[in-house]
Sequence to fold (571 residues):
Amino acid sequence: MDWAVPSVPHTMVEEGEVDAEVERFHEARDQVRERLEELKAGTESRLGPVEARIFDPQILMLQDPEVVGGTVRYIRENRLTAARAFDWRMMELQTLWTRTSHPVLLDRLNDLEDLQVRLLNQLLGQSDPFVMESDDGPVVIVARNVTPSMTVQLDPAVVAGIATDRGTRTSHWAILARSQGIPSVVGLGDLSRQAEDGEEVIVDGRIGRVVLDPSEKERQIFRSRRERLELWEDEVDAIAKLEPVTADGHPLALRANLDLPVEAENARRHGAQGVGLLRTEFLVVGRNTMPSEEEQYESYRRVAEAFPGHPVYVRLFDLGGDKFPTFLHMPADQNPFLGWRAVRVLLDEPELFRTQLRATLRATAHGDIRIMVPLVNDVEEILQVRALLDEEEEQLRKDGIPFNRGYKLGVMVETPAAALDAAELARHSDFFSIGTNDLVQYTLAVDRTNARLAKLFNPFHPSVVRQIHMVSRVARAAGIEVSVCGEMAATALGAFLLLGLDISTLSVAWPAVPELKKVLRDVRVEDARRAAGQALAAPTARDVTECLVEALGGAVNLEAYRGRWELELPG
Fold:
């Protein structure tokens, strides 16, 4: 894929050709808009209406007076060709937007550059750079960044993986790539400068690893791992029917983490017993307008109806950090993960929050919808959420709109503050869900999006393990469910440890459900508890992993997890 802003010659037109050049610009603009509308319609039929909205910002930009009027002015005043005038105007806007330093502009700049490439190629009579063909078999895209609209056009039969310098796991394009089954690894710094065309690349989206020009040993490890995963994928239907139970008969609950409603069917096919984490940010990130109550309701209902008889945990908007909707005008925090995010945003934005609460309550009429509040640090926060829910319940009753009055409300335990205050939070919660990604980040003071600190981000750090144990004990004493929905649960060592800490409800990315079930069916709870006891007494993360590896013995092939969190595994 030759996706780059094309070189535009500095060419001028004669005085009598200016009107024709303006008309040529408008014709190209109309052609690009028609193409974007076609792509939007195709995406809607293939992935769904929510996913199709990724083209809206570019469609709107094609009508924006700043874009259109500025280009026309450069043509008329400077007698520039349409391509040169448009290129100048887009560079001008990019410079202007960059100077604001607002975090939401990353997505907007991506859309701006995306549109720049599309329209310039149209004006220059060049082929569509977003159409990818390969005569040499599957390819890996290595780039500074990619855009959502580019991602939905990729053919999974051609694109074997994506690796980017920028972005996070929650970047909109990364979510869309996963929904199409394209492995992706983000935030790699300057990988695009190191990679060369034609170079062999390994992209392992499961463990977040990219290897350029791999050695024969690395190839063998990857082939073995890929073959095993493909075998499990071939056996998905059979594995999905297996009882989620340990080797010694201990029942388990294995649920899926979903980024988009379209993933629900795949999650169910892979054996997920409901949804342990429905991320709702897909409804707002990158949007210019707030999603309506009806739009949210339909999305939540769609997921609930895909899992009859199973719970669906709807996480309220976890905005801030690396997720910014355009319409909210969020501040440019120097430390966004320590700033205005999650429940803090929701309580400060009642219009946004009440709309989501009302939509979620309505969805409870169609299944076991449970409401999960992100990043709770204080009992007062959950009390405020309950008060708002009570008000919206009363309004729904007055309006005669049905909902399930017996729904459950719980909190995500993602900070040391929440873990230490778990006993008090349990008095006001129906369940706990431990988000290990953030819990590790806040406990170890390690930005989980910073590639330079990747080696320090370790969920097996003793302080993290002891907090999880503490929360588990508090939940059992209070008689409420406790689950884990972070990436830790999707690994053999992590799941084994959590089982030993008496957490038998796990939620992972839906492709990982079959392998997780296979792992846990081969282990015994008594072995896991013994290993967890040793882990709780271990002084270092290395000691924690060593005792877990030893306890697992030959029950699980750990080779599949080599490379995750830089774990030192035997062999």
About this structure: The radius of gyration is 25 Å. The first strand starts at residue 139 and ends at 143.
